[in-house]
Amino acid sequence: MEHSNTIALSLSKEHNPNYLCTIVKIEMLRKHPNADRLQLAEVFGTDVIVDSSTQIGDVMLHFPIECCISEKFLLANSLYREKILCEKLGVEAVEKSGFFEEKGRVKATKLRGLVSNGFLMPLASLEKTFNKSIENLEIGARFDTIEDMLLVWKYEKPVERMKTGKQYRRDRDVSELFIEGQWRFHYDTEKYENNFVEINDFLVKAKTVVISQKLHGTSICLANILVKKSKYKLVNWLYKIFTRSDAEYRDVWSSRTIIKTPVYKTNSRKFYEDDIWDTVYEQCFKSKIPKGVSIYAEIVGYTQNGSFIQRGFDYGCVLPENGEYQPARNYKVYVYRITETDDNGKVCELPLPDLENKLNKLGFNNIEVVPVLKTLSVMEITGKDANKFIDSDRFESEKTAENLFHWIKEDKEGLFNMENNSRWCKNKVPEEGVVVRIDHRAWKIKCNNFLVWESKDLDS
Question: What is the rounded (10 degree) CA torsion for 101, 103, 105, 107?
């Protein structure tokens, strides 16, 4: 069997769309205002700092912030710090070294006052790593795997590893628990700047764009859905014979990736000392969710033991005292999505502006909807009044999504508080960013100051 001499790119089964390597062509370069030997390359509408050897037309690999790069690639291209590189190679000295630490993590750091939104390497660095041809590789290709080797993945904080038992995560088949089509984890919200073409297609068909605040907390999903009456196939088979149904409606709740409902929770893995998802369900949602309704929300503030849910981000909450832990005081719940699922698995999603009325009708107390910062008609963005929102000299209809991105990032009118301290927190912490919603899809835009803060927080 002959082996191809060209590099094979692919996506792993568990890939995260926000942490992929992309082949890009440098089309815009400008001088760094504070450094003679550095330049700013525009990639996905954001600046990536490169050295003076980079030229317009160069084809490069773009690695996003907070991804990890494989050891094989970093070694082949001498990208580790000298000490780490020498230890890994078993030598006393090297001619060339880089700046990567042991984990190979791309951090958001400021170089001479400006943030680099990712890391760029020449496409030839793949050829150097794998000793194969790169001639067949296309600009725009996105991947995390090369030649069956994972090249890039999301960096995550170390957490206590589960020692025994199952954990029902989003990457497991949950059909053993729920009726097909009933339960859905929230999808990973992709970065806006990676999806200009797709967003432009949505704008052609949409009527409005809703821009809401992005909150820095922890996710919770809650639903009253059809579940199997038993974990055991034989028992469910008997139920179906004698009762004509092996299903019943039951409340289920989870973190972003792990089912937390006690009857299904068979592992002891924890991120917080107390299981805040159980507490929020008991205090705010128990016996209140109608059949078929799924609620997706962000929990912010403090945990029951007085720790921050996210370090420093208090969102106006106060520390628990005297053993009391109350919603709207010690923590807050902000709903950002509600869906309704019928017995056949057909899903209807409510528009964000309708969520407040829905919550009021359902009688939820101490629950809020994520703050809406601006609602625009697509005509305002793409029509004759577009220059109200986007610099008229930069406006092109085929680049509407990209222009909207720049308008939000630059925030000349101060609508989104970009690059400032959070308006919602008493503590001095940066605003995280915004979420842009078109129809029932959403994309996130993070502030540069938050990206730098997040990298430092992960370091600590």
Answer: -50
